[in-house]
Structures are given as C-alpha cells and as structure tokens.
Write a structure and sequence with these properties.
By secondary structure, this protein is of the alpha/beta class. It is 43% helix and 19% strand.
C-alpha cells in the first residue's frame, strides 16, 4: 500500500511517500526556519503564505523522488490537527484536492500521533508501550496497549519542553530554534547552577516547565544586577539537567508501573543528545525493556510520520 503524506502544521512544508507503513520512498521537507529566525519565532501568517508558495513544488518533488505517478498512490494522509490553523488549512486543502482530482482515498491524521508513529519506521512496536512525546508545543506521556489505542497518563500544565528551550535559548542569545544550540552548549558545560527540579505531586505524570524557565530568567537578571558574568555553558547544562532528569524520572516510573515492554520517544526534542544519553542509561538498568528513538530526520516535523500514522488509521478503520 502506497501512502502519500502531507504535513504543514507549523513551518515545514513536507510531503512523503511511504510503502506499507515502513519503507520511505520519498521524504521532502521545505523548512522555513531561516525566514522566521529574524522574528525569533514562527509568525503564523508568514508560515501559511510560504506553505501556499511551496506545497505544489514539494508534492511534485516527492513523486519524482519516489519515481511514482498519482495513479500509483493508494491513500493520501494529511495532518489536520493540532497546529497553526492557517498552515493546516493549506495542507488539508492541497491533500484533498490531490486526492479528489486523482480519485484516491483520503484520511486526516493527528500531528502528535504522527510523531509517535515516526518510531515505527525504525522498529516495530512492542505492546504495551509508553510514548514520551516532547516537542515545541507538547509534552505528554502516552500509554499504548495496541495500535491506535492511546491513554494520556500525563501532560504539561503550562510550557511544553521545546517552548521552554526556545525561551531559555533567547536569554542565552542563542539562535532560533534554540533546541539544538542549547543542547550543544549544555554538553560543553557543567550543571553548577542551582535550578529547580519540578516533579509536582509524587504520583503525578504531569509536567511543568514555566517555573524552571522563570528561575533561569531570574538567575540571569540577578547576576547581571550584581555585575557578575554568567557562564552560559554551565547555565545551559544546569537547565538541561533539570529538564532531562524530570522527563526521564517520570518516564521510567510510568514504564515500571504499567509494565511496558517498550519506550518510544517522539517529537523534535527526541533529537536532544542529553535526553537520549540519560534515558538510554536508565533503560539499560531495566531487564526486557526496549528503547526506540526516531532517526534525527524523523524527530522534527515531516510527512513520513503522517503517512505511517495514516496507513494504520486506514487499515484499522479508525474513525
């Protein structure tokens, strides 16, 4: 089964073609990062206009890369929620038009479910599994007992982890998006600054990062007022250590409580080297527990994950 996926939820215009939910035949992504960097974040109206300009070219590039024609496509899958409404509308309308014009089946996919299914490209799922979803807009722990069965155990009560990275990165004068630069900087420093580890209630699987973000801002401001210098690498390491420690602690606690056989990490922050290292170390101590990360190219927004999620949704006839 050949699925064409379309993803335009934020600032990437992406089209992918995937065979049988596993074999990626084409994965084309046009990124708008350079356009939005001067603003320090994504401007929704600008993003949607650039999707309009690029979606046809990206779709054609994907077909050419896969050496396929429209008649070869069995299903069109598109991100319909969540995301920037203007950007989503471009992708949905383009996908619908392509499907209708070529008499192809059409299905809509949740963006976060797409991130989870990016892991399936790398490795088959082993149920029950626990998904740690960490991105610019979302932080969730999701239990899956089978395909397309989702139980949210916990989620962020305020800032998503990726959002916190971008805000702290701005304080440290790092380029947008700040996730990778801050991760790289953290690996060069030591966690010498006293920052909070926000676990909330001991039985809670929810997350909160606004307090940690505020602690960093207060620390920087008070240090400047004293005329002292901030060691940016050490502050980055301290911030990342606080974030990663909480993420790993809650993930491992949930994995043990629900007796899962596999942990998968999904979303843009899945590319974070500090998180990968600490989670690998923790999982290595637990017998018969697998850990799966997507390839770096499937961590950030892409359409291959949407095609895979669409494949399973269609096969299982999920409404």
């Amino acid at each position: 089964m050949i699925v064409l996926g379309v993803e335009t939820s934020c600032d990437e215009t992406a089209v992918s073609i995937v065979k049988d939910g596993k074999e990626v035949l084409a994965n084309i992504v046009y990124s708008q990062i350079a356009i939005h960097q001067e603003f320090g974040g994504v401007i929704p109206e600008v993003a949607s206009r650039h999707h309009v300009l690029k979606i046809t070219y990206v779709l054609e590039a994907a077909l050419k890369k896969a050496n396929l024609e429209a008649k070869d496509i069995d299903l069109v899958a598109v991100t319909s929620t969540p995301g920037l409404i203007g950007s989503l509308m471009v992708g949905v309308n383009a996908a619908k038009a392509f499907a209708l014009a070529n008499e192809i089946e059409y299905i809509e996919v949740n963006h976060l479910i797409g991130h989870i299914y990016a892991n399936y490209i790398e490795k088959d799922f082993v149920f029950p599994l626990l998904a740690l979803v960490v991105s610019g807009g979302h932080t969730e722990l999701v239990l899956m007992k089978d395909h397309y069965q989702f139980e949210i155990l916990g989620q962020t009560l305020d800032d998503a982890v990726g959002e916190a990275y971008d805000k702290v990165g701005r304080v440290l004068d790092l380029p947008y998006p700040a996730g990778k630069p801050l991760d790289d900087l953290a690996l060069m420093g030591d966690a010498t600054y006293n920052l909070p580890y926000v676990y909330l209630d001991k039985d809670s699987y929810n997350f909160s990062f606004s307090g940690l973000k505020s602690a960093v801002l207060n620390l920087v401001n008070s240090t400047k007022q004293k005329g002292e210098a901030i060691n940016k690498a050490n502050l980055a390491a301290s911030f990342q250590n606080s974030v990663v420690s909480v993420l790993v602690s809650k993930t491992i606690k949930a994995a043990l409580e629900y007796k899962v056989k596999q942990i998968i990490v999904a979303g843009g922050v899945a590319a974070n080297k500090g998180l990968r290292a600490k989670l690998k170390e923790a999982v290595s101590k637990i017998p018969n527990l697998e850990l799966t990360f997507p390839k770096f190219e499937y961590c950030t927004d892409n359409a291959a994950m949407i095609a895979v999620a669409g494949y399973f949704k269609y096969k299982l006839q999920v409404k």
